From TrEMBL:
<protein>
    <recommendedName>
        <fullName>Repeat domain-containing protein</fullName>
    </recommendedName>
</protein>
<dbReference type="InterPro" id="IPR028994">
    <property type="entry name" value="Integrin_alpha_N"/>
</dbReference>
């Protein structure tokens, strides 16, 4: 059972009195992140230059107000600038205490985003997920092959996927293949860093897993060949892959088929 402690002081008002004039409360959530059975208040704050039309936010920080003591904890992280920053509270580890997911869109042409998950159990800050660590740890190979195929290898999971690119068009394919479908020279693509990460309770047990998206890139960033979809599940000390798929884009059909 959770309860809200009574206080004549509004925590949001208390917080805003300590911030710079250009600092905004970007998002906030209620939940028990300390594990004491009392709802805490979690804020995402950041700074914006009000003289500019851009919606870019910088110096984004996490602020936790302990619901029982009103102790304020401010947490910084490395990638602290971007667009549309938001919070999600949920149990990712199975200890029945809310963890804190932070999502920030980079705004770049690659469609990448920054993601962090923090635990604040017993008022101790612990980082459970860092998008940069994940991007660097999980590696892929993207190799063009003869006969208009692209091989994607997931090195960590030791999985291989094949993408058929015959529908890419003659102009695209003629630059890469001869008239017999043989590659003119070796060509590699790549897999982009995270562009999406979503909390999903697959098992309906109120413990959330992570659903991640990474684009498979061919010759250039706008040349998307597919999307690696990996689901992560907490295992003792970190998130581990649970299952992984490669989704491919469909091509248009000129006539309706029955």
């Amino acid at each position: 059972m959770f309860y809200y402690p009574f206080s004549p002081i509004n925590p949001a008002y208390l917080l805003t009195q300590q911030l710079k004039e250009n600092t905004l409360i970007l998002d906030f959530k209620y939940g028990d992140v300390t594990g004491d059975g009392v709802f805490d208040i979690v804020y995402l704050i950041g700074e914006k230059n009000f003289g500019e039309e851009s919606s870019f936010i910088e110096n984004i920080r996490l602020v936790i107000i302990d619901g029982a003591t009103y102790f304020v904890e401010m947490i910084s992280f490395e990638s602290d600038g971007g667009y549309n920053p938001r919070l999600f509270l949920g149990d990712f580890t199975g200890n029945k205490v809310d963890d804190i997911l932070i999502s920030i869109f980079s705004g770049g042409s690659g469609g990448m985003s920054w993601y962090y998950i923090f635990s604040y159990l017993n008022n101790k800050v612990k980082k459970l997920f860092d998008y940069e660590v994940y991007n660097n740890e999980y590696k892929y190979q993207v190799n063009y092959q003869d006969n208009y195929k692209v091989e994607v290898i997931s090195e960590n999971l030791m999985k291989k996927y094949i993408i058929d690119i015959q529908d890419k068009g003659e102009e695209y394919l003629s630059k890469l293949y001869d008239e017999n479908g043989k590659l003119k020279e070796p060509i590699q693509g790549y897999v982009n860093p995270l562009s999406g990460l979503y909390p999903i309770d697959y098992n309906g047990d109120r413990v959330y897993e992570l659903f991640t998206l990474r684009r498979v890139i061919g010759l250039y960033n706008a040349d998307s060949l597919g999307v690696v979809q990996t689901s992560l599940q907490w295992k003792e000390r970190d998130f581990q892959p649970w299952f992984e798929y490669l989704a491919v884009y469909g091509s248009d059909i000129k006539e309706k088929r029955i």
